[in-house]
């Protein structure tokens, strides 16, 4: 029997379990399924209903939320004939990490099989789920989003519909994770260099936090300029940035610590300077990277 007000969660990794837990706590009839059995013990104790198969899970609710490792994993469940059949006329909100192209392909597949489909991305860690701090991005048909928003709001946080293009949530996700992982690569490298200089991670942490706090206002300030093609570097020219990066590389390699990430960043800065834009800010690199042929040029160097 289908419970149109109920919700199914497919995928019970740490994030899937957090989502399902939030649905149960919000009082929704929540059915769960995971490829590997045994991950649903606490959820069932909390009140979730265990499904024996993904098609059974899909058939009992009007809305199925998928949260597995990636799009390929989601496809491997959704494209099973019995699951696709059970989902016909029902809605899937796929919150698994993906790429814009794969999300668009999944939406086209769903549309061809009578499955109503929204793509989404979760931009905050599991501890935020069910709290005001969670951030969810969605894309796909707006009416479908509005129809299911009341249930999705049980997950807490802010939900933003980014547009009808089903790849748009994944596009934001990719850009935001680019910021995140590049910062994490920098932090991991910074800790290695600091350790070589006898500074513990604990000692560095408050100062690293201070550096992190400088970034948000810089993002805001640069956004308007970049959209308008203004890369002004009046207060911090890219020549100065390249010099600072060279110090990091020298210190790092002096300790025998590889500095590949910083070498890549410094290389981009030097190329900008080489094209006569040394008075611009570091963000001029954005323009260099998006030029047609920019990638080929990078590969040649
Ligand atoms: P994982 O990314 O490790 O995903 C684990 C889940 O994927 C498990 O349910 C696993 O099933 C399932 N899975 C993997 N391969 C397959 C497959 N081929 N077929 C079916 N199921 C498969 O853990 P999370 O739960 O943390 O993440 C889920 C999604 O949420 C990911 O896309 C992640 O990027 C995203 N996310 C996670 C955050 C976090 O803080 N954890 C934060 C923001 C987003 P099984 O148990 O059988 O292996």
From TrEMBL:
Q: Where is the NADPH-dependent reductive aminase-like C-terminal domain?
A: 165-291
Pfam families, sorted: NAD_binding_2, RedAm-like_C
Tell me if Oxidoreductase is a UniProt keyword of this record.
yes
Keyword Oxidoreductase annotated? yes
Query: 6-phosphogluconate dehydrogenase NADP-binding domain: which residues?
Result: 7-163
GO function terms (MF aspect): NADP binding; oxidoreductase activity
Q: Which Gene3D superfamilies match?
A: N-(1-d-carboxylethyl)-l-norvaline Dehydrogenase, domain 2, NAD(P)-binding Rossmann-like Domain
Alphabetical keyword list: Oxidoreductase
Q: Which family does it belong to?
A: Belongs to the HIBADH-related family.
Q: What is this protein called?
A: NAD(P)-dependent oxidoreductase
Species: Actinomadura chibensis
């Amino acid at each position: 029997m289908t419970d149109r007000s109920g919700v199914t969660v497919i995928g019970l990794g740490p994030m899937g379990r957090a989502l399902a837990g939030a649905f149960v706590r919000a009082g929704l009839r929540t059915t769960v399924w995971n490829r590997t059995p045994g991950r649903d013990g606490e959820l069932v104790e909390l009140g979730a209903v265990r499904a024996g198969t993904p098609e059974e899970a899909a058939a009992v609710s009007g809305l199925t939320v998928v949260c597995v490792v990636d799009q390929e994993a989601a496809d491997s469940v959704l494209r099973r004939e019995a699951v696709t059949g059970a989902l016909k006329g029902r809605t899937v909100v796929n919150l698994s990490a993906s790429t814009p192209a794969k999300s668009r392909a999944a939406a086209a597949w769903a549309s061809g099989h009578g499955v109503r489909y929204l793509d989404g991305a979760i931009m905050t860690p599991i501890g935020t789920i069910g709290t005001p701090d969670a951030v969810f991005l969605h894309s796909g048909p707006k009416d479908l989003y509005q129809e299911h928003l009341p249930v999705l709001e049980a997950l807490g946080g802010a939900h933003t519909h980014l547009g009808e293009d089903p790849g748009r949530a994944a596009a934001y996700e990719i850009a935001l994770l680019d910021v995140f992982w590049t910062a994490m690569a920098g932090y991991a490298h910074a800790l290695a260099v600091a350790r070589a200089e006898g500074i513990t991670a604990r000692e560095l942490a408050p100062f690293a936090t201070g550096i992190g706090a400088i970034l948000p206002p810089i993002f805001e300030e640069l956004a308007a300029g970049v959209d308008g093609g203004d890369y002004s570097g009046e207060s911090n020219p890219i020549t100065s940035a390249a010099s600072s990066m060279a110090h990091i590389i020298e210190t790092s390699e002096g300790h025998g610590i590889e500095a590949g990430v910083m070498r890549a960043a410094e290389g981009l800065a030097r190329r900008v300077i080489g094209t006569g834009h040394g008075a611009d800010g570091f963000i001029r690199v954005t323009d260099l990277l998006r030029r047609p042929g920019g990638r080929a040029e990078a590969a040649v160097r």
